[in-house]
Amino acid sequence: MRKIFLATSMICITMLMSCENSTKQAAETETGTEAVATGQSGVQDDLSQKNVVQVAIGSKDHSTLVTAIQAAELVDALSNAGPFTVFAPTNAAFDKLPAGTVDNLLKPESKDDLANILQYHVSLGVFKAESFTDGQIIGQVNGNDIKISISDGKVMINESAIIVASVPASNGIIHIIDGVLLPPAAN
Q1: Domain 50-177's class?
Q2: Where are the domains of the chain?
């Protein structure tokens, strides 16, 4: 009797396991994808407000910035809860850099330099444009500071980039700027 019970139990367990595998394979076949673990950027949410990365991805004027964020592997970090203030240079801002600069920064061996530059465009916390004060110093994620100046109602960062628009995001705010911020040279 005990042998029959063990045999029946083994058959049931085997059938359950094969059903589970069939269901998983059917789901993967149906979606055409394999189960892949991803970070915060892999979370699908079509109902909530977009985060700073999703806003940038949706902007035709920020494709260079998006490519740089991907190359520096910062997508997941900037998709997290934050809050972040991102100073987002437009494609035209990147075009102002000397020829070949962006291409060189996108090379794998320049990943650390690229990440440093991109992190110089990010502050922890939400800083709205109307709250900036002339002479304000703000610490950036890379450990350096930026300086805000206000003249004729325009907010300028490091006297080199002007905020042309601001876009709220679920995890902070994006200030669209007309120049690329370059961190001070390391001593």
Answers
A1: mainly beta
A2: 1-36, 50-177
